Amino acid sequence: MHPSSVLRPPSFHTMSRHRFHTAELVKLLEPAAQPLYVLDDDLTIIYLNEACRNWLGADAEELLGRKCVYHSGNELTGLGRMAAGLCPPPAVLEGREVLADVTKFSDQPTLFRRTRFVPLRQPDEEILCIIALVDPQDLGENTPEIAISESNESQELHEQLQRFRQQTALRYRAERVVGVTPAMRRARAQAKVAAATRASVLLLGPPGSGRRHLAESIHYGGPAESRGVLVPLECGLLDLELIQSTLRSLALGPAGGGTLLLCDADQLSAESQAELASILPTAKYPLRLISTATTPLVDLPPRGLFREDLAAMLSTITIELPSLAKRRDDLPLLAQALLEEQNARGSRQLGGFTPDALDRLCAYSWPGNVAELAQVVAESHARASGTLVTRDELPERLRLAAEAAARPRRKEEPIQLDEFIAHIERELIRRALVRSKGNKTKAAKLLGLNRPRLYRKMVQLGLEEEGEIEK
Prior knowledge:
The chain folds into 4 domains: 139 residues, 2-Layer Sandwich (Beta-Lactamase); 140 residues, Rossmann fold (3-Layer(aba) Sandwich); 63 residues, Helicase, Ruva Protein, domain 3 (Orthogonal Bundle); 54 residues, Orthogonal Bundle (Arc Repressor Mutant, subunit A). Helix 4 crosses helix 11, helix 15 packs across helix 16 and helix 16 crosses helix 17. The chain has 18 helices and 12 strands. The chain starts with 21 loop residues before the first helix and ends with a helix. 41% of the residues lie in helices and 13% in strands. The chain is α/β, with parallel strands linked by helices.
């Protein structure tokens, strides 16, 4: 095959709305021993030399004309995932030369190569194309990290996320449960055990903590031939008819079974609990049970809130997911992962967050957990004007929360009830004495007291010395 036939429309003939002499460029680049490829200003792959095609393998030619997405997740598949592994940091679109790691996203976990992205610009400063010069050797585990001249934290997070996806997510089948804290490592290890069995699983954690994603990871991480379908049910809305129809559909489905996901199982009504407890043990088809809850189900029967037999049935393996506030060290990596999901859904490609934007994200309390963070990232991605989300492009509520946290609270003075009542009594007695022109008998009558009781009150409140009252 002639090298120039690799170029397919749209290619160098119309690349980036600029004229270019295809044959001359191919003649220069094709014989190079170093793998290299070329992107247009929309990050679409328009050329790969022979060395690069050999590195990428049989599917390399199919990459031509495919846009690279700045995304490291396994949600992308096939050629889309392969192209994402070759994507440069979006900072290159600002005309800067960038050093980054790329991967061909094979099933092997460490096939990364260091790559220099060089933007070529027109005299009017518009980018003509981006040349990617790939190191001929794969990076080893002990390869020194890139010395990024601008201390680009977002690029470091992207590359950390790539390695996490390749090395951790492929093993645990939990690519959407991002985190490096001990709690998340433990949750992924437990999810791996759960995926290899048909035992029932209870996922504990606050709403928005990622319980649904972990449930999906456990289901899809099992053997494909026996996993069946995943059927989620919102337990707060369940009634007997819905339970029965759902279980019938599982029994009659093409896979003859599957996974029943009981979302918020601790909200099951007494009737629904009784129905499930009677039907589930008698199911004559493969059925896995995964449940989510905010409270351990085995803690509820002593309080009369749950059936003991059903609680035991649903809690063979229990996995706990902490709130986002309890795993703040995971937040930068998680925010980067959510931003790259937005990259995959739209045409805009962002590199990440500026350091001060990450600081503000880490300072927030996140009452809505990961679900709230996902919403904040989506809003910020839509508002960003550059290749990085700045602090001012985060939602306004984060700024207000930061200002409230920086403002010291006023110290609340305790209310001394006895002192307050004594103050009122002094004032009322003074007014009664003024109206009675000092006549204590009349003052007592105005206050609804007898004279001896008024006398005792005045002594108690220090209004007159005892001797003066006697006089």
